[in-house]
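Section 5.1 Outputs to date
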Amino acid sequence: MDKLLRKLVSILLIITLTGANLSILGMYGIAYAVSDMELSEQSTVTQNKNVEFNAFFEGGGHTRTELTDSTDARLFLNIKVKNSGYLKNAEIVFNNANFKIREELTDSNVESTDIENNKILLKQINNGSDVTIEVPISILNNDEVLPDNFNKVSTTSFSGMYVDAKGEQNLVSKEISNKLSWNAMVQIALKTEMTKYVPFILEGKSGVMMQAKIQSGIEENKLPIKSTNIEVQVPQINGIMPTSIAVLANSIKATNGGENGIDFTEQNYVYNNETGIVTISMNNKSDMVSWLKGVQDEYLVTFIFEGQEMYEYANMNGIQVNSQVHSTIEVYNGNQTILDKTEIMQFTGKQKMGDIEDVNIELPQRVSKGYMYSNYSSEIKNETPYEVKYTATVNSASLTEKMELIQKADRFVNAEGIEIPTEIAGSQCVYNKVIKINESIFDKILGMDGVIEVYNIDGITKLGEITKDTERDERGNYFIDISDKNNSQLIFRTSKPITEGNLIIYIEKAIKSNISYAEKQVQTFKGLISEIEEKTNTSSVVAKMQMMLEEPTSVAEVTVNKTDLTTVVENENVEIRAVLNTSTEYNALYKNPTLKIKLPDSISRVELNKIDVIMANGLSIKGIPEIKMENGVPVINVKLEGMQKDYTIDAEYKGTIVVLNTDITLKELT
């Protein structure tokens, strides 16, 4: 038994020591692989002593730190062909790199550059050559990058065919490793303001609501954010701290690229009612780092002071806010860099500011009137589609029992700002087609048992409802198709929100193809206004927005089939093509157009042999084209008659093509 026990102890001891040694070996192996000493001692010799290759940074080293916005970052390539022979078909590839080749790479030894794949092809290099190629590089600054993008060892792979003095071909190759770190001079961008002060009396509840908006990020997004931590000192009323707080994120794009703050939950903030500090925390993604440009995080922090005493004190004395907001941000770079900044949020007031709930509306910036005009003459009628986005913000789920969104009828507006109805004698110019809401947003704000009921404007006729069982489209949106209802105004009624956040509803709408206004009246329309009203048990708010109705513009293009002409003889059969581009509704359809094709002043004579119209689309040649001298240059005048009826969207051609076959004589001294 003792012998068996001793054997077991010996075996376990051997396993333990072996494991420890392997762990130590692995640890040192990793350190050895990325050590600066190892990088500096790399050999440049290939399989043939006559060919050497090296890749290094300025000064000859293999480690370097550059600024993310640097235009001077360089990697140098050195190729030597000694004694005899020559090198051909040489290729250099940068593998596992955290940089890309810049387009301005120019060198007489470079055959071609593949920027997308970080690859360089070299010309033949003869014996006795010692070639150094300067490769301008820049950081990989995609919207998403790997976590090691700012401190990385990459390999430069060289391969080619060395032809020796006897004409024998020898494959040569070499890999050189370099460690490149990226950094930047960065500062936190932090802005705070009080946006709401609302004393309230609701069913059985009274108190005061205040809200702060906090915008946070890195100035100019020079580096991606690894983590954001914001501490907010809560305001007080008469020395008393809030009963409860709620935080919602309008945007977390600066920290992790999240849309609409869906990923921000109650797990991302905590309120310590003893210290009076609200702590907001957000991390970037772990697998791929989000690095969006031109964005910031935006948080709304809502403070609720419950009780009749709070309500009466605020109404009588108003409030004074002098709170500290402290932001700590860790960024991705070659080092562990943590930044911090403090702002003081101040506010003094007695008058109510804002409402408990908010609603917003977004429209496209512009929509073309091209289809509206073409419908008057074309047999093919087209609607003018657009999409509207409604955002109902739940600032306090505890105070909000339900929401009702009332869609107002859209209105046209002229240059003087006068609103013109889109409904005439019961005939509607604009109607709703499809209602959509993202599944994740629905589940977050209303929960798995939530519901949105959709009614006609009478509030009685139910057109449908959205629940967890509603059909989804390919993008994960719940949707209801009501295009057959001929509806221009809707009412949305929701169940009680379960948390704070933005409830976002999209509606596909369209201006009908057969509106009740004449073409001359449509010409006076400069915009279209949409409006939405939100009613809750706490307040009623309205939002409206205008989009531009843009006049289509005439677009034409001209091409010539011969780019080289001679001065010795007449240039025969020179084909000039004029294209009346109608490939988008933002381009105007043509009516009785005249084309004036101005030719270079180096042409002394033009003979028109033939003229054709391809894909006429309602146009035809009127009379015989004229060639006149205008301001010393020849101009071909082509008159067309008729009117184009249809757009050529998604067609193989852009529009009507006028083909001129000409003989051209150049001036002798051209």
